[in-house]
What does this fold into?
Amino acid sequence: MIDQSTFEQQSLIEDAARRFLEKNYSFEKRREIIAEEPGYSTDHWREMAQLGWMLLPISAEFGGLGGSTALVLTLLKEFGRTLYVSPYLASAVTSARIIEKMAARPVGQQILEKIGSGEVIVSPAIYEPQARYDLNNVATTASTARGAILLSGAKTAVLYGNAASHLLVLAQNAGNHESHREFSLHLIPKDTEGVQLTHYRTHDGARASDVKLDNVESRDPQMIWQGEQTLTEISQAMNLANAAISAELVGAMEATLELTLDFVKTRTQFGQKLSSFQSLQHRLVDMYMRCQMAESLSRETARAIDSFRGAEQDIMVSAAKCEIARAALLNAEEAIQLHGAMGMMDEMAVGHYLKRVFSLSLLFGDADYHQARYRSLRLKAAS
Amino acid sequence: MLRAPPFNSELEDFRHTVREFIRVNLPDHIRQQVAAEKMDLPREDQVCWHRILRDNGGWCCPAWPKEHGGPGWSDEQQYVFEQELALGNAPRLMIYGVGMLGPTLFEYGSEQQRERILPDILNADTFWCQGFSEPGSGSDLASLNCRMTPDGDEYIVNGSKIWTSEAHLADWIFGLFRSSVEARKQQGITFLLIDLASPGVTVRPLKIFEDTHEVNQVFFDQVRVPKENVVGRLGEGWEIGKYLLSLERFGTAEVSRTKATMQRLTELAFAEIPGGTRLIDHVDFAERFCRAERALHALEMTERRILLGDQRAESIGTGASMLKIRGTEIQSDVFRLTAEASAHFAHIDIPRSQAGCHSDSPYQPGDAARNYFNYRKTPIYSGSNEIQRNIIAKLELDLRS
It folds into this structure.
């Protein structure tokens, strides 16, 4: 089980995050922040960097705090509770972990320190419009012409592309045969010629971008990484990202349950509190039990990331993401229903939890994707 | 594969010792019955296994302290022991005497009662059953009305208890009886021990639709019971009953039992079918199979969190209700999957003794469908899942009716 020092560290970060968010990120404050560009508070971003939160997921070897995954997830769960949106997941969690996996230490450390200080924001440009959640489906090409490496293609759901200083672009090397494909990863300053971004708001109030790459030159050889393991390493980094999302979902589930309990204990109909109706009580109990099961699975992802590699890690993360995403969506739907018509009001938080949970559940593979991944891993494990 | 984390090496060594002991000492004919998911074994088989465990340091009573003949184990050891029993297809421990009455007597019994009763439980000389439900008092247990009226040094008991598992095997019954009528129905209930050989006791078998005899109705007609058979104080029965129900901690979610069932289902699912397709290659089946696996893992980790986690408490409170609800729901799903796994062959209705002998089948359904029917009891018994939801609503979520 959890050892005592991890437990204490978790309590510390949980308290710190909860205090910070309660003070700075009320539902009303959040509403103002997401209404304006860039869709997150740059003041909060700086403060979080000063608190060291962006160094937390980065290993000590690369100049970070090297927090255990359990600690990182504790922070993300608090984000989930308050619907906090920012480039944190994209930059400090996902991109940082990909770079850690791919880059040699001196170069990697250089970039990661800047991510850790918040001055550089790197957004992964991995997924493509035709690919759904399949990491193997990469149409973006890296080709060599007159000594330059040029990237062309399209990327989608690039989180906070508006705020990013750099994009981390996955490409397939031109001239590959179907049987032997090579992939490469490029860290590209966003203002490089040929990078064209279309920004949009997502349903949860966050921001994302579609990216077109038209003969974009990948200039710095130190910022190009490739090798046979490229996709595997990215996939492992995505495991951390999905564990982080799962923790956020659990936080959102907890908060959704709490605000629904508050509502049914105060709202009166037929001369009695809604909380006195057994049919509603039992639905709330089911919501509560789904929260508990989700919490257990979320803790398991932390263990999987820190103790396993390969299939054993993959299967645990997919199990958790699939189950937690479904549970979180169901709980949010139930929460709205239990609020009645009030649940449809923009001024009530509950509907915004559904929107956030919906967005999170789609990121880096939805429940169906992870269910299928689980099944295929399970079949391989047995044969 | 989803696997729970191992314990420290000392506990894992302990696990190995337990596993090896079961492998070597569990008689085959008992192992086979449990592997076929039979829950209520014949008395002689239960006694046989109980005594094998007793002779090995009191393992038959894992929650009992050493002074009463138990092994004096830690929570972790009890947890591991229960897991290994399930995974090794060993019978469930004797729940009524060992799991319920023993610890109740540690807490509420008199010295004289402990001396008189505990050794017979430890040695499996006396077989106990539990009398809670009545024909008019199911989920509304506190409305019970089986009466005990004082008469000199005795009580006279009239009324009946129903759904009494193993009453046809038992020598004694413990239960809750109405000693007086008070303003609150939870008052005036007394915890009483009755010898089933007493004149006026009749045990009538009730056959369940799955075709087995597990439960009974027990009738009391002017049954005389010595006053010394009252446990605790007169009218304290409801408290004692609640305490007794909170005792069972390890294994109530049936996680390890369901894991053992899941293991058998896995073998079915991955078996090659000559001229056909493996079950696991049918996508819809595979999805349900995988979902059950994931749900079971979530339950297992939740159980560990509640029983052995950092917030472990003396009483697991509403955790017990949650484990019971989810445990029995998942178990039901797995039993249905197992029953459906054999396709056409699942609906062949042959006696239990001959099940599995249908030689033309590429599948061996065994008792799969019967077990599916039989295990419909688990979401109903020991406080229906609806009652468990009421408990969580009230005590955990503070929702008032």
Summary: The mean pLDDT of chain A is 96.
